[in-house]
Structure formats: C-alpha cells, structure tokens
Write a structure and sequence with these properties.
The protein is mainly alpha-helical. It is 46% helix and 10% strand. A 3-stranded antiparallel β-sheet has the order 3-4-7. A two-stranded parallel sheet has the order 1-2. Strands 5-6 form a two-stranded antiparallel sheet. Strand 3 and strand 4 form a beta hairpin. The structure holds one RNA strand.
RNA sequence: GACCCUAUCGUCCAGUGGCCUAGGACAUCGCCCUUUCACGGCGAGAACACGGGUUCGAAUCCCGUUAGGGUCGCCA
C-alpha cells in the first residue's frame, strides 16, 4: 500500500464552473493533499461543439481563485499528457483496438462503435456509499426494452464519455475516483469497461449532489451556482472554500471556521455525508463575514483595494486606508460592500442623504448644535475618540438636550449619512481639519436652504 | 417504467443500541451592549418522514410504505 494516490478532476468545458464541480474538485484536492498524492486536471472536451477557450478559462480561473492547484494538467504539464481529451485520439484508438481484438466491440448499422455490455451482476465497494450491488441483467429502458449496448465512438468518429473516461483513468494511473453521485449508476458500466480492457479499476467515492435550498436541482442561473458569481459578488475565496468543505463533510466536532491546513489534515472521504446537501447562501455569507472579521488587516486591505479602485475611490496611501478599514470592517458582509462604507472618508465632497437631513439636520436647533460643536472641537486639546466624546457630551449638557441631539447632526455633518461606525472614532480617523471643514460645509449648505 | 442512492430542527452538520427530556452552527424571534448601523453577549421557538419488526432498551439494526435525488444518449 505504498502506491501513490492519484486523483483527478475531469470537468467538461461548459462555460462556467458549477459549485458542485468546484466541490468535487475541492474534495479531490483535499484527498491528494491529505495523502501526499497527485491532483490531476483533465479536460473532457470530446464534444467539440462546446469546446471553447473561454469555457476552459472559466474552469482555470475558478479553480485558481479557490486555491485548488493541480499537479498535472493543462498549464502544469505532467507525464500523462496531453490533458485535453480532444488531443488524445491516438490513445483512445489504441484502447478501442484492444476491445476489437478481444471481441468486445462491434460497429452497429449506423457506423457507431458499440461495447457489448456483459450485463452480469456487479458488486463494488464505494468509499462513501458503501457496498453497491447491481443486477445488470435487470436494467431496462423507459419503454421496458433491455438496455442497449453502450456506444463508445460516434459514427462521426467522436469518442463517448464513458469510454474515454475509463481509458484515461487507466492511462493516467488514477487510484481513486471521487466524483458526483450522478455517476454512481454509471459505475457498473465503467467497471465492465475496465474488465474488458484488462485493467484494475480505481477505488470509487461518489459524493452527493448539491441542490438548491428548497431541494430542487441547481442550474446555472441559480444563486450561488457558478463560481465566478462569487468572484463578482465580492466573496473571500478562502471563505467560499471553507464553506464548501463543510457541505457534505465535517470534522465531526463543532469546528466550522478552519484554516485549510486543518481541513487537509483531518479530511477523510469515508466521512463524507451520504445525503444530498441543500445549498444555503446565507450560511455562506456568514462564513464570508467571519473571514472578513478574522483575517489580518493588511490581508483584508489587499482584497478590498481592487473594489475601492473599481468604485473610483482615491484612498491615498495604504497607511491612510488601514485605519478606515479597521473601523468599518465589522460592517462588511462582502468585499464589495467596502466602497459604500469607506468612500466618504476620502472626499469632503460627499452628498447629504436627503432623508437623514429631513429627519434631523433640517431643524434649526440641529444647526445650532453643530455650530456649538464646531467651536468646541476647534479648541479641543487632544483629538481622540475619548476626548471628542467627552466634549460632545458636555456640550449637550450645557445646552440642556439629550446627547443624540448633538450626535446625529455631527454624524450627518461629517459623513452625509445617518449610519456608520462609532461617531467618535469616525471623527478621530477623519482628523480635526477635515471634521471642521465638513461641519462648515454642512452649515453653509443647509443654512442656505433653510 | 427498470435499476441505484438517500431520509435528524427551514438549512448545514453531531449522533453509529443505553451518556438523547437529541447537541452545535446559519437563519428567525426576544433581551443586553450601543442614542446610528454593525460586531459581540445571553436566551427562545424549531427535527429523529410514516408503519411494522429485532432487543431489557432504538434517531441509531432489519423489512415495508412514502418522499426526494440519480442513471437508463452517437451529452459529459
């Protein structure tokens, strides 16, 4: 049992990477990393019609984003290439010839090559599903007719999935096939193919499918179905990966937010759940938020920066941006939320939220409070959150009003809106000059319109 | 229709014959913190699909029913 584990993810280029596929890739990758084996990427593009470069790119991008690096495959090389099935015709022809020589295949009336299904009872041990027994002689079509022999090559010469899949698993010395449960019923056929080719089949682990939260099938358009949807929505890749790890697998204790190294260490395919998982995007959002909350600030800044730039925010240096990010990070559910929480820190020319102004700043008393606060803050000795708070509260006391009568006008004056991080910390980060300028701007604008 | 897989709170997971008056997490609701919004803390409601067995004892084992999913392509 010193044999090195070799697993593969074998997607067909459909134009996007489905979460189900991503999880299959992830489990294969985890198993390879756990065992010190090899993770191979093989592109199953025998159907030339949908074989496009863009579709392939979506797979590479999605896997790289999730941090699933492959040891062999396109762009990585390896001894068992090429790794696109469209380029492996000669290899398939060789295996087909073997089947012809042994009488396992024949050309049908249309010119397609068919494999004589033995239709013998078959038993195999699945790492996830356990012992599977199938009486192949009972298989029949919808209309009750017996199952037809399996086509392995079309009349036009194109190879068929089942055959190339098996041929490649032999050629690439695959030891474990971890794939979606939709292939469980195909496995007996594959086993028959392995036997006919005189090869030892790999071990199988069929993982349950991912369905929508309501139990319906997940299709491309469903929320959360496509990996690039996560990229575009501003999810943290490590968070999505963590969430996917927990869909159908668990470390058997209550650990949820885990570094990938811990998952690799503890991962065991035999522990994968047998039940189909229903996809809950809200939980994924929570995991994402936990990552935003817990990752080192500098790292978060790396991930947030592209979003700020995309929103056209000029945030100056990293040193100027970090305190702002530290202040608002617990409000971010996604990276894409950052601009909305951070933009007003970096420009004094922000708009005033009409509703907030109507509710609090339109009152003459509110403007008066803002004037008093401006005077107090202009003479404030130490510009710290604590000092700002003390000063504001004493102004309220002197004026004989509740603290809120000062807090709300100040917030709107300094930020233009009624919600945000702690007022005093916001003012501290902004600094005296900017705060006073903003108060003056608000007073000028709103006094004029009063 | 045939064959295969599955069945614990709305959802994700724990539970592998007694520790279960079933545990954790997300979501929901309430309270606290906070004169904003969040974060955080505390608490509540919420499940073993149904029916038969086996056993001194079943969420856990067996059978059936029901329900969901999958396969049965010259798609992958």
């Amino acid at each position: 049992m010193s044999e090195q584990v070799r697993v593969r993810f074998a997607p067909s280029p459909t134009g996007y990477l489905h979460v189900g596929g991503a999880r299959t890739a992830l489990f294969n990758w985890l198993f390879a990393r756990h065992t010190g084996g090899k993770f191979i990427l093989r592109i199953e593009d025998t159907d030339a019609a949908r074989n496009t470069e863009a579709a392939m790119q979506a797979i590479y991008d999605g896997m790289r984003w999730l941090g699933l690096d492959w040891d062999e495959g396109p762009l990585a090389g390896g001894d068992c290439g090429p790794y696109h099935q469209s380029e492996r015709g000669a290899i398939y022809e060789r295996h087909a010839q073997k089947l012809r020589d042994s009488g396992h295949v024949y050309a049908d009336e249309n010119g397609a090559l068919r494999f004589r299904l033995p239709r013998q009872p078959i038993v195999f041990e699945d790492l996830v599903c356990g012992r599977i027994e199938v009486d192949r002689s009972k298989s029949q079509n919808r209309d009750g007719s017996p199952e037809a022999d399996m086509t392995i090559r079309r009349a036009d010469g194109g190879w068929i999935f089942h055959f190339v899949n098996v041929a490649d698993d032999i050629e690439m010395k695959i030891t474990h096939v971890i794939r979606g449960e939709d292939h469980l019923s195909n496995t007996p056929k594959h086993l028959e193919l392995f036997a006919a080719l005189g090869a030892t089949p790999p071990r199988y682990a069929h993982i349950p499918l991912i369905l929508n939260k309501d139990g319906t099938k997940m299709s491309k358009r469903d929320q959360g179905a496509s990996v690039d949807g996560y990229i575009e929505a501003g999810y943290v890749p490590e968070a999505v990966r963590n969430f996917l790890c927990l869909l159908g697998w668990s470390p058997k204790d209550d650990r949820e937010i885990m570094p990938i190294s811990e998952v690799i260490e503890r991962f065991d395919p035999a522990q994968i759940n047998r039940k189909a998982a229903h996809f809950d995007l809200e939980k994924c959002d929570w995991v994402n938020q936990q990552y935003i909350l817990q990752m080192p600030l500098e790292k978060l800044a790396d991930q947030v920066e592209p979003w700020l730039k995309k929103a056209g925010i000029i945030f100056g240096t990293r040193a100027e941006m970090l305190p702002v990010l530290a202040l608002v990070r617990e409000r971010l559910k996604k990276l894409s939320d950052a601009p909305a929480w951070m933009d007003y820190f970096f420009t004094g020319d922000f708009p005033f939220d009409a509703e907030a102004v109507a509710k609090v700043l339109s009152k003459p008393a509110a403007l008066d409070h803002l004037r008093k606060l401006t005077a107090a803050y202009a003479g404030l000795g130490e510009w710290t959150a604590a000092a700002l708070e003390t000063s504001l509260k004493s102004q309220a006391t002197v004026a004989g009003v509740k603290v809120g009568e000062f807090v709300h006008p100040a917030r709107i004056g300094a930020t233009g809106r009624s919600v945000g991080a702690s007022l005093y910390h916001t003012l501290e980060v902004l600094g005296r000059d900017r705060v006073l300028a903003r108060f003056a701007r608000a007073l000028a604008k709103l006094s004029a319109s009063n």
